[in-house]
Design brief:
single chain; elongated; alpha/beta; seven-stranded parallel sheet
Length: 1251
């Protein structure tokens, strides 16, 4: 009913323009941008489109949250196949109202129904105040109904002749009495055919004077107006007083026909049912010529529905001008009784929801509104099916006694839901745990819901879809989709189908012309080939096949990518664009750029094998000569070639571990941007596939914008087996343009993967040491007030750290007690050697960690020496009068060491390098220069880190002997952490966070009473929306207190919320959810942290960047997504970035609590899950960033200017103190050098940075 929607948009837009109300159409493949959504007040759509829209959590799906009034016209369609969709959207809307506590008014409009009360109950209408029922007595003009049976065999020439004769008799009789007649036929071509047939009969009977319009006062005016129309039939018929009207005509012609009929210049209007549904254009009499209508949805002719008959009859009579109206139905004799009884008595409309319930349930599970059997049973209670099962149980397979014994039909609903869930589980669309009743959507289910694919089609795909397929195979599988079941193979079409198959289409057709799927295949290929089709029914079937084929092939593409099938994904990408562009992948790409036909012909004739990229480099006159045309044509081709999307791809291979390889890809735009050609976005896919082209190892969906010149993408792929593959392939494919693709082979020749680290410290099962081993009653009393004994890791490290002066490195999980070991090293240095007034320098990664370290130290030792957090570089090594622990950051140390003539205090006795897992270029520069400065002094170095994959070179860098290295596994922790991961295949977007909201809520609800939880989201701007989603979930679960502490008085939290500077935080706060990020005012951050620490607020939603600074922990930590947008360049281009392994590890550490079990939930992209899990289980890889460091180059230049570094050899001596030198020897491939090529690479580096 797209034409009907367009008509309503036009009329409403015109009538409401004076109120500045914007009306838009949303049907078919139409999309609405955020800007269009914001400026629109009224949307006219179809049930199917609104179902698709409300399945999306964001984008167009946000419309659902903005809607305040939902008007459903023709609610009586519940009785037809489309009725299941109406039930779906009404149930979804009603549940949204309850969960969000928003107000959405529902207004239903319908023809007269016998069971209107049932429909009212379904729409949650108040019977007393909201229900308005008008029977036929309210008609402004009484209706006279005629039912005529046409004799003759169905479809025979005799029956058609009889139908034409009856039509003429009735029309002539009415027109001769001075009335107008609307004749309704059921095909666009039939309007002209029927009009011409009637004209011939009028001429044969000599009754043309009854229809002659020339006596109309405006006849000459209308005749001049109609002469401007390109429609020849319309102009010919006008002289006989006839008009035609159907959705295939130009809108201007339709408007003209409506005006002329309304002015009575046309006596008889031949039209389709579109006019009855969409245009309020009454006549004295309406005649329905035949009751067989072609249903493209079923692929054959079906009976005209009773509702259509009533709708058409509703056009009979002209209120205020006539005292009666006449409705005439002409139908085959055998169908007369059916229409007579149906129209006059009317039967109660029943629900058709059972037929569509399986797919509707899948959509709700994919949307996250139904997660288990209980919720599914509740959801079913919002449908019209539930209402009618209680009223008329026999129709739905229940005895009359069941509604009496079970008034809410709980058992029946449970049976229906369980059966549907089993069907979906069988198709692998969801996982159904029958013991718990839990539903978990799968990739197949999510894709089916997104693309409106039936479960029966998914079952076909599961059977027929293979990892390696040709174009013909792909088209065969696509054609087997049950969405095309209604396209039937008919005998009278065989000749034309065979002609198309033999002479037009390029791919072999499985099943030939005799099967339904073979016919669909032929029609799809004909559509792509832009073939001319003669038969009207085939034209209709082709349009239906093309409309649905594009959608289904996109679904197949996402299925293939989700399964990481490289070969078939490439083919599906090409075929998807072939359907959209109506051209084959082998045709010349420039055909898509709007060049003239003769230009395209000459391009294909003379330079078909010349790549577009080469054409873009040639001058216009040369291109003109090559295509045997002039320079102007050459300029047009050159312009098109420069606009054609192309890229330059570069890559580097960086081994991380013995079986993980990091591939850094740089994608540079190599085409000129045109707003007309490219719009605002140019999306593309890039992936890495294995050497056989079978498996996609990693993939990403990216996009160029007008201001984007370069995009960078990082992939981490496994290198399995004892013998690594010879290469991988990097593939680039445009999402919109045929032929815009490239592949780069990345060979592994010469690539050396680093050896596995064997230096791991086994956690020993030893008795825990008591604090008396400190031999200091003063210190012992302070620690025993908080701890009972040392833990296992501390016990194992104690002797080396406390009783020796050896350098030590401890790599152990967060919360295992590394800070206490640092205390012991400080005590050993500053107290035992206090007469030397020693200085201990502690380096942390950031200020937050530095303050945490200082806070941990003060309760135990502040009376013994100064605890001095200091972030001013000039004061870093100033002298003090007593032993001092100076705590600073790596950037502060680097800034000081970069000062000209900087010096290190002679009283420096201890250097503690904390957070070494976060070693970056500044950290390495600062420590390197410090180690170089103290190389001839006796300064103890202690390194602290989270578990690392390999600590060997780190230990060498800090001059730690083997007996001082303690490298523990991530699992060697005293406090248990239960880590769970859940993967998603939805691209990074607000839709992804919406999909994560329900599992995140479930994880938060599982947090033990009295404990807190932290939720990390990708950006500050997303904190509020995630908090709102959690509040919505609370509403669904009827948890009115949200996440407030058990004994918290709500008045107290209200008072606290009133004290917020930003009152937009109050709503989440009163539900026990605090929002915390750097963009908030300091008083608000302090207030929210205080409420969280007190247990009043139990959930803290914070941003990714706060993982380093948030000063609290939680019993549960949820990471919602592991990708974020980073602004790059001056134009504000967005680049999608992955969380670093260090960030994820840091977030996990927030779940560590002493004496309690922590729970860490990682929600990430499916392709990143294994990588993150591996690093969390095995330790983080650590490499040097010094080669990219600007600080190192600045230091070198300043020292050369000052004469301190006199030669490159002096610089090489400094470089020998770096972590870089050691890692280049251990993992040369990461730095792009060959084995043994370290010195040469360093020399080249010095040449590049030498001033």
């Amino acid at each position: 009913m797209k034409a009907l929607a367009s008509e309503i948009v036009r009329k409403l837009g015109r009538r409401l323009a004076w109120l500045f109300v914007k009306v838009r159409e949303l049907t078919g493949d139409m999309q609405m941008t955020r800007a269009e959504i914001a400026e629109t007040q009224i949307i006219v759509t179809t049930p199917e489109k609104w179902d698709v829209v409300t399945r999306k959590p964001t984008g167009e799906g946000e419309l659902a949250s903005k809607v305040k009034l939902l008007i459903i016209d023709e609610v009586h369609l519940l009785n037809e196949e489309r009725g299941a969709v109406i039930e779906t959207i009404v149930a979804r809307t009603l549940r949204q109202v309850e969960s969000s506590q928003s107000v959405i008014r529902i207004v239903g409009l319908s023809a007269t129904l016998p069971n209107y009360i049932d429909v009212a109950d379904f729409l949650r209408v108040s019977r007393q105040t909201g229900l308005f029922y008008f029977d036929s007595s309210f008609r402004p003009v009484p209706l006279e109904q005629h039912f005529i049976g046409i004799k003759g065999r169905l479809g025979s020439p005799a029956q058609k002749k009889n139908l034409d004769q009856v039509t003429y008799d009735k029309v002539d009789s009415l027109v001769s009495e001075g009335h107008q007649v609307m004749v309704f036929v059921h095909a666009r071509k039939e309007t002209v055919k029927s009009a011409l047939a009637l004209k011939e009969m009028v001429l044969a009977e000599g009754s043309s004077e009854h229809f002659d319009p020339s006596d109309h006062p405006q006849w000459e005016f209308f005749r001049r107006e109609i002469s401007t129309s390109p429609n020849k039939e319309m102009k010919q018929l006008f002289d006989f007083g006839f008009g035609i009207h159907h959705a295939g005509m130009l809108r201007s012609d339709r408007n003209m026909m409506e005006r002329m009929f309304e002015a009575r210049a046309i006596k008889v209007l031949f039209c389709t049912a579109t006019l009855a549904w969409g245009v309020n254009l009454p006549a004295h009499a309406v005649l329905i010529k035949g009751t067989e209508i072609y249903d493209s949805g079923k692929g054959n002719f079906v009976n005209l529905s009773v509702l259509d008959v009533l709708q058409i009859f509703g056009r009979a009579g002209r209120p205020g001008m006539e005292s009666s109206g006449v409705g005439i139905l002409c139908t085959p004799d055998e169908k007369l009784d059916h229409y007579l009884s149906a129209v006059t008595s009317q039967h109660a409309i029943e629900s058709k929801f059972v037929n569509g319930m399986i797919d509707a349930l899948n959509a709700e599970v994919a949307l996250g509104t139904v997660t288990n059997v209980t919720e599914a049973v509740q959801w079913l209670g919002y449908t019209y099916l539930f209402v009618r099962m209680k009223r008329n149980p026999l129709v739905y397979g229940m005895p009359h006694s069941e509604p009496v014994e079970d008034p809410q039909l709980g058992n029946k609903r449970l049976v229906l839901v369980t059966s549907a869930a089993r069907q979906l589980a069988k198709a692998d669309m969801l996982k159904f745990d029958e013991s718990t009743g839990e539903f978990t959507i799968t990739d197949l289910g999510r894709i089916a819901a997104k693309y409106y694919i039936r479960h029966s089609s998914i079952e076909v795909f599961n059977k027929e879809f293979k990892p390696k397929m040709s174009e013909a195979d792909v088209l065969a599988v696509l054609s087997m989709s049950t969405e095309f079941d209604q396209i039937q193979s008919r005998e009278n079409e065989q000749q034309e189908l065979k002609l198309l198959m033999d002479e037009v289409i390029p791919c072999q057709v499985k099943g030939g012309t005799d099967t339904n799927y073979g016919k669909v295949n032929i029609l799809l290929q004909s559509y792509i080939s832009q073939a001319h089709i003669e038969d009207f029914a085939l034209v209709s079937d082709t349009a239906y096949a093309a409309q649905n084929g594009g959608r289904i092939i996109r679904a197949l593409l996402e299925i293939a990518i989700s399964r990481k099938w490289a070969s078939v994904s490439t083919i599906l990408m090409a075929m998807s664009k072939a359907v959209e562009k109506r051209m084959w992948p082998y045709e010349h790409p420039l055909k898509q750029l709007g060049l003239r036909r003769e230009v395209i012909y000459n391009i294909e004739q003379w330079i078909d094998d010349v790549p577009v990229s080469e054409l873009a480099e040639k001058p216009a006159d040369e291109i003109g000569r090559l295509i045997h045309l002039n320079e102007l044509h050459g300029a047009a081709v050159l312009r098109a070639a420069k606009h054609f999307p192309s890229v330059n791809i570069n890559y580097t291979l960086r081994p991380l571990t013995r079986d993980l390889l990091q591939i850094n890809i740089t994608i540079k735009r190599a085409f000129e941007w045109s707003q007309k050609v490219h719009g605002s976005l140019e999306p593309f896919w890039i992936w890495v596939e294995d050497q056989n082209g079978v498996e996609i190892l990693q993939w990403m969906y990216l996009a160029f914008r007008p201001t984007t010149d370069v995009l960078r993408q990082e992939f981490i792929v496994p290198v399995r087996g004892s013998s690594p593959p010879s290469h991988v392939t990097i593939r680039f494919i445009s999402d919109r343009w045929i032929g815009a693709e490239d592949e780069i082979v990345a060979p592994f020749s010469g690539l050396v993967m680093p050896e596995a680290s064997l230096r791991r410290t086994r956690m020993l099962d030893v008795p825990f040491l008591a604090f008396k081993v400190l031999s200091s009653p003063h210190l012992e009393s302070r620690y025993t007030a908080r701890y009972t004994t040392f833990n296992g890791m501390q016990t194992q490290c104690f002797w080396t750290l406390y009783n020796t002066y050896r350098n030590v490195i401890v790599a152990a999980p967060t919360g295992s007690g590394k800070t206490l070991l640092a205390h012991l090293a400080i005590w050993r240095t500053c107290v035992k050697d206090r007469f030397k007034k020693p200085l201990a320098l502690v380096i942390s990664h950031n200020k937050s960690n530095a303050h945490d370290f200082a806070s941990s130290l003060r309760p135990f030792m502040s009376d013994m020496f100064d605890v001095d957090p200091n972030f001013v570089p000039e004061h870093l090594f100033r002298r003090t009068l007593k032993p001092t622990v100076r705590i600073t950051t790596s950037s502060c140390l680097a800034s000081y060491m970069l000062f000209p003539r900087s010096s290190v205090a002679s009283d420096l006795s201890l250097l503690i390098c904390d957070d070494l897992e976060s070693l970056d270029e500044k950290y390495e520069v600062g420590v390197t220069l410090l180690l170089h400065a103290i190389q001839n002094r006796s300064v103890r170095v202690v390194g602290l880190s989270s578990p690392l994959y390999d600590t060997s070179e780190l230990a060498k860098w800090l001059h730690v002997p083997d007996e001082g290295v303690f490298s523990f596994q991530p699992s060697d922790r005293e406090q248990s952490i239960i880590t769970s991961t859940q993967s998603f295949t939805i691209p990074h977007s607000a839709a992804l966070l919406k999909a994560m909201a329900k599992p995140a809520y479930a994880a938060l609800r599982a947090t033990p009473a009295g404990e807190g939880a932290i939720v990390f989201v990708p950006a500050q701007s997303l904190c509020r929306s995630v908090a709102a989603d959690l509040i919505t979930q609370c509403g669904v679960e009827m948890q009115t207190r949200g996440f407030l502490g058990e004994d918290v008085d709500e008045s107290r939290i209200s008072i606290a919320a009133a004290g917020l500077e930003d009152q937009s935080l109050a709503d989440s706060l009163i539900h026990g959810i605090g929002i915390y990020h750097g963009g908030l005012a300091r008083p608000d951050r302090k207030l929210i942290l205080g409420l969280y620490a007190e247990g009043i607020v139990r959930v803290l939603v914070t941003s990714r960047d706060c993982c380093w600074s948030v000063p609290v922990r939680g019993s549960t930590v949820v990471v919602m997504g592991t990708q974020y947008w980073r602004l790059a360049g001056t134009e504000g281009d967005r680049q999608l970035m992955n969380y670093s392994n260090r960030e994820v590890s840091r977030m996990q550490s927030r779940a560590v609590q002493h004496g309690k079990i922590g729970r860490f939930h990682l929600f990430c992209q499916a392709e990143d899950r294994d990588t993150f899990t591996r690093f969390l289980d095995q330790g983080l890889p650590l490499e040097s960033c010094l080669l990219e460091s600007e600080e190192w180059a600045e230091w070198l230049k300043s020292r050369v200017r000052d004469g301190i570094v006199a030669s490159k050899q002096d610089a090489m001596d400094v470089l020998s103190f770096t972590f870089l030198v050691l890692r280049m020897e251990k993992n040369p491939g990461y730095y792009g050098i060959e084995v043994g090529g370290r010195d040469e690479a360093l020399s080249r580096h010095l040449d590049n940075v030498w001033p």
